[in-house]
Write a structure and sequence with these properties.
There is one protein chain. This protein is mainly α. It contains 15 helices and two strands. It has a two-stranded antiparallel sheet with strand order 1-2. Helix 3 packs across helix 4 and helix 5 packs parallel to helix 7. The longest helix is centred in the middle third of the chain and has 25 residues. 13% of the residues are buried.
Length: 323
């Protein structure tokens, strides 16, 4: 005995999982969404259609149809099975991500975990209200747990992480974990460490701006030029007043570049000169030595003229210390 439902398609509804809206709709190409929705419609009635016919039906190029299927496969929304495509149960997929089997624990561990869970719930609720208007996707709960477990951030740092990504209109998983990875490598765990990191970052930005201005550079510094400044300030731990000594001494050189300045500052670092006073004293000594050497050379070769630059006994570094 068979039972059939006799209802007009006119009064039928297409059920779209809300998780599709929260997880995939905003990031997907509009044509790809169009393909998914029509496939969802066909699945409801066990319909069959070829990619070519689907292309004609949706008035989309065949290449777009093929790209759409590849995109949804990559994002685990559609799976290919032999010569057919299967739409993934997105609700069950999210349940599988969230579900964690219970294990036996001691009373002390259970009480401690319960205390952490209360605070964690407050953090999650705050994030949900501040950045998702109260409709945060279930997958974010798993991601938040992963951030806590992997990076051991304090609660305030986790909220600050969401705020950082939200302010840059980049509140998506890949960007957030990239930022979290960067913070973790910088030794950030607490809010105080994060504040120190921000302060250091802001000071570095000011230093780069000042150096560019003193060199007469109006454009944005290149990645390689900024890398030099990072080397001087972070690796060598030189303050701006030391770097300025090198900048002032390059005024005698036509179009001084960062490679030339780096050669000077690296020489100071190799000589373990750590203060502006030590460097200024060193420069005075070098200048006097070069003058003495020049006097001696003039006595020996008073009539000799250097026409070949390659035979010049004074290299760039020596000329620098004579100025």
């Amino acid at each position: 005995m068979n039972f059939e439902q006799k209802s007009s398609m006119l009064f039928s509804d297409l059920n779209i999982p809300e998780v599709f809206v929260t997880e995939h709709l905003c990031a997907a190409n509009g044509d790809y969404v169009k393909v998914y929705l029509y496939c969802l419609f066909l699945c409801k009635y066990n319909g069959q259609i070829s990619p070519l016919d689907l292309s004609k039906k949706l008035s989309l190029p065949l290449a777009t149809i093929e790209q759409a299927f590849k995109y949804w496969e990559k994002n685990n929304v559609i799976r290919k099975k032999q010569n057919a495509y299967v739409l993934v149960d997105l609700k069950q997929q999210e349940v599988d991500k969230i579900y964690k089997p219970r294990v036996t624990t001691s009373v002390e561990d259970a009480m401690q975990a319960n205390s952490k869970n209360i605070i964690r719930t407050q953090v999650v609720n705050a994030i949900n209200g501040m950045f998702f208007q109260g409709v945060m996707s279930p997958s974010w709960y798993t991601d938040i747990d992963m951030i806590y477990a992997k990076y051991n951030f304090d609660d305030d740092v986790v909220i600050a992480l969401f705020q950082y990504c939200f302010d840059r209109q980049a509140l998506h998983r890949n960007y957030m974990f990239a930022v979290a990875e960067g913070w973790s490598k910088s030794g950030i765990k607490t809010m105080q460490e994060l504040d120190n990191y921000y302060e250091k970052f802001e000071n570095l930005a000011k230093t780069k701006k000042t150096i560019a201005k003193k060199l007469g550079i109006t454009r944005k510094l290149s990645q390689y030029e900024e890398a030099y400044i990072d080397k001087w300030t972070i690796d060598f731990n030189y303050p701006l007043d030391i770097i300025e000594i090198a900048l002032k001494k390059t005024t005698s050189k036509t179009n001084p570049n960062f490679d030339y300045i780096d050669k000077i500052i690296s020489d100071w670092h190799e000589r373990k000169l750590g203060t502006s006073e030590e460097i200024n004293n060193f420069l005075k000594e070098q200048k006097q030595k070069q003058k003495d050497l020049k006097v001696q050379t003039n006595k020996v070769t008073s009539i000799q003229k250097f026409t070949d630059e390659g035979s010049n006994q004074f290299n760039d570094l020596s000329k620098f210390y004579m100025n």
